[in-house]
Amino acid sequence: MNVKFYTLLYIDIEEKRQWQGTVWTGEDRLKIFLRNAAVLNKSLTEFGGFEPLTILTNKPKHIQLLSEEIGYKNYNIKEIEFNLNVPKGIKFYSAHFKIDAFKFLSSCPEDEYSILMDNDIVLLRELPKAFHRIIDNGIPMVYHYHPYDITVLCRILKNSISAHP
Hints:
alpha/beta, 2 domains, four-stranded parallel sheet, 5 helices, 6 strands, globular
């Protein structure tokens, strides 16, 4: 099965975020996200041998320009439709657009195993064989889990793998 990794970068220049006590706006914030995506992409290709990461966005030309500024352009950039009406100022504003990203992923080819990741994740070693078995069997994985639910998640994944030898 063809594995493709995606990350979301919805751009609203007016959006402000507080991170480690500092309010980040505009270009500086976007460059941080793109540098994170660059590190994620390098780790996916080095440790996993996967195709380059694809950034899903509403402003591909803006990402291309900023990618040139940071000196990294080895990821793919894909413009998708964003139709969700998200109120400005809501906590985790751009994260709400993951719903539109999931709509896009549901339209990907059947032979593609699509994985949406936050861009501040990095692989430190090759993925375990269980990960590849999950993919080979087309078992859906959880996007995000609460740390207290990890034992339940592990049990579910173990049962899913056992059911698909």
